[in-house]
Amino acid sequence: MTHKFVKQIEIEHFRCFDFLKVENFNRINLIGGDNNVGKSAFLEALEITARTIDPVSCVISLRDNIKRRQNSYSRNFSEFDIVTYQKNSLRIQSDISNFSLVIKGVDPAMHTNINDNEAIFEDDLFIELIVNSKSQIIPYNRFIDTINQKDQTFVHSNHTIKNINFITPAIIDERYLSELYGNIVDLGIVSEINNFLNTFDPRIESLLVRPTEQFSTFKIKLKDKNVPVLLSSMGGGLNRYIAIVCAIWKSKDGQLYIDEIENGIHYTKYDKLWDIIFETGRQANCQIFAVTHSKECIESFSRVAEQCDHENIKFINLSRNVNSDKIVVTVLDSPGLSDHFSLGMDVR
User: Fold this and answer.
1) Is 322 found in the same domain as 214?
2) Which residues neighbour 338 within 8 Å (Cβ) at sequence distance 6 or greater?
3) Ramachandran angles phi, psi of 322, nearest 5°
4) Which residues touch 259 (CB under 8 Å, ≥6 apart)?
5) Type and span of the H or E element at 9
6) Does a structural domain hold residue 182?
7) Do 108 and 241 belong to one domain?
8) Are 70 and 77 spatial neighbours (Cβ–Cβ below 8 Å)?
9) CB atoms within 10 A of CB 255
10) What is the pLDDT of residues 225-267, one digit of tens each?
């Protein structure tokens, strides 16, 4: 499925945002800003709207977002925290999708898709989802059970978009890495990935996958060693680098979202990282949104963009207004970002 690029987004009452509108996204978009200004929340809003094509896919996207962020894949989530404090609704609209969620009290006259004889409401609440003019009413207790994966009758795999992917700040689990790498095998570009790895670290000859009874283990063949070594023994930076490159190809003709892109990667490798992201993103026709806390990573982004792809990048800086405490946004292209650095302005 070909997915067009996101050009703008409008967010209302989602997590820390009362209201935020951002326009003029490009192929490669880097998001910076101080701590607690909503960088990760902004990334999540983009992912949710990109994955939302109808009410069912919206629920799946919200479920994955909450479980991933609260690290609750093996247990119930802690709190339904996607709506801004003391609000009962949210809205996210982009040029790809438009959805709203409203938490309401029960109206006896309303109609649901549930059997009337079934006890469906808990605390007299229900969720109304409106996605691209399609409305779905879900009892609150059933919605929570869906988020906790206790009730999956509402969700279906054909409501997910395969070329929308999210890389978390943590080291990537090798089972998920296997899924990403499997797409590389299917595309027949294993040798290209090995070339990228050699660019990243000249000692690396190739990436190897050793199947086991339960799952596959990744190993690295180094030029000066006869026996491959475990990928996990090479540190988190290489794991992240492999995940990013493979995820770009898995997101071919779609979007990839990367939270804290610099995690585990030494600042001397940033130029190589961005160079490969620009080139691979272009080849895979993948739109990329990445978050960073690192000024060095932003400087590298600007420097490499000036050399190879300055027409296809944007830098989005989030900050808080000192008077109102509202989150505000500044969008810069590559020349504008260079001017900020030349004037000594801080872009974090």
Assistant:
1) yes
2) 302, 306
3) -65, -25
4) 40, 43, 166, 167, 168, 169, 290, 291
5) strand 8-14
6) yes
7) no
8) yes
9) 24
10) 999 999 999 988 999 999 999 999 999 999 999 999 999 999 9
Look at residue 333 in the predicted model and tell me its pLDDT: 84
Cα 118 from Cα 140, distance rounded (Å) = 14
Decide: residue 338, CB within 10 A, 0-12 exposed, 13-18 middle, 19+ buried. Answer: middle
The answer to whether the beta carbons of residues 348 and 63 sit under 8 Å apart is: no
**Do residues 121 and 201 both lie within one domain?**
no
What is the token pair recorded at 331? 């969008």
* Amino acid code (one letter) for 89: S
Range of the domain at 283: 164-342
Residue 247 lies in a domain: yes
Alpha-carbon gap, residue 184 to 240, rounded angstroms: 16
Q: Are 288 and 294 in contact (CB under 8 A)?
A: no
pLDDT digits (tens, 9 = 90+) for 289-342: 999 999 999 999 999 998 887 788 999 999 998 888 899 999 988 656 666 655
Average pLDDT over residues 169-191: 91
Tell me which of 116, 138, 160 is where a domain ends. 160
Q: Are 282 and 252 in contact (CB under 8 A)?
A: no
Is the pLDDT confidence value at 109 over 80? no
Give domain status of residue 84, yes or no.
yes
Buried/exposed 285-317: b ≥16 CB within 10 Å, e otherwise = bbbbbbbbbbeebbbbbbbbbeeebbebbbbbb
Inter-CA distances, 46 with 13, 16, 154, 257, 291, Å? 14, 14, 23, 8, 12
Same domain for 305 and 226: yes
One domain, residues 171 and 112: no
Span of 57-66, 200-209, 266-275, 289-298 with lowest mean pLDDT: 57-66
Read off the CATH number of the domain in which 268 is found: 3.40.50.300
Tell me: do 98 and 156 sit in the same domain. Answer: yes
Decide: pTM greater than 0.90: no
Residue 153 and residue 171 share a domain: no
Which runs of E-coded beta strand occur in 189-265? 204-211, 216-222, 229-230, 255-258
- Range scoring the smallest mean pLDDT among 72-81, 123-132, 137-146: 72-81
